[in-house]
Design a protein that fits this description.
It is a single chain. The protein is of the alpha+beta class. The protein is 36% helix and 30% strand. It has a single domain, classed as minor pseudopilin epsh fold. The strands form 2 sheets. The chain has a 4-stranded antiparallel β-sheet with strand order 3-2-1-5. Strand 1 and strand 2 form a beta hairpin. The longest helix is centred in the first third of the chain and has 52 residues. It starts with 12 loop residues before the first helix and ends with a strand.
């Protein structure tokens, strides 16, 4: 009697287990790095958003001829920073979870109709790891993030 031997190709259970163990080890090293990167991106995004809102305030003040005041204070009126136009709050925003102010408890900047700011100031933000980003507002109206 002739026995026919099948030649099926595939992976053995042992080979699959080795691949899964290697993938698990690689994932264990990548997940903490992704968390650190995410925290840094949240901080950078928060500073960039704040600078963008300040630039929009400046543009709005110049276009409308109405001074725009921006307040920076944690949990003030249900937000972390907001814009006053006259006596009304025009917009308000919260910082991302884990991002806080390092600078004094309350700061205010008025973007005036001539394009200048009422004062020069720094708004310093920090994440849980201690990384910091700074939004700089110059009296000339220049706003930068570093």
């Amino acid at each position: 009697m002739n026995s026919v031997r099948s030649t099926s190709s595939g992976f053995t259970l042992l080979e699959m287990m080795i691949v899964l163990v290697v993938l698990g080890i690689v994932a264990a090293f990548l997940v903490p790095g992704a968390t650190v990167m995410s925290q840094g991106m949240q901080l950078n995004g928060a500073a960039s958003n704040m600078a963008g809102q300040l630039q929009l305030c400046r543009s709005t003040a110049m276009a409308t001829g109405v001074d725009q005041m921006m307040h920076f204070s944690a949990d003030s009126l249900g937000s972390d920073y907001h814009i006053h136009e006259g006596g009304n709050i025009r917009g308000s925003w919260k910082l991302p979870n884990g991002v806080t102010y390092v600078s004094p408890a309350f700061q205010s900047v008025t973007m005036m109709r001539n394009g200048r700011a009422s004062t020069s100031t720094y708004i310093v933000l920090q994440n849980r790891r201690g990384d910091m980003d700074t939004v700089s507002v110059q009296a000339s109206g220049l706003i930068t993030v570093y």
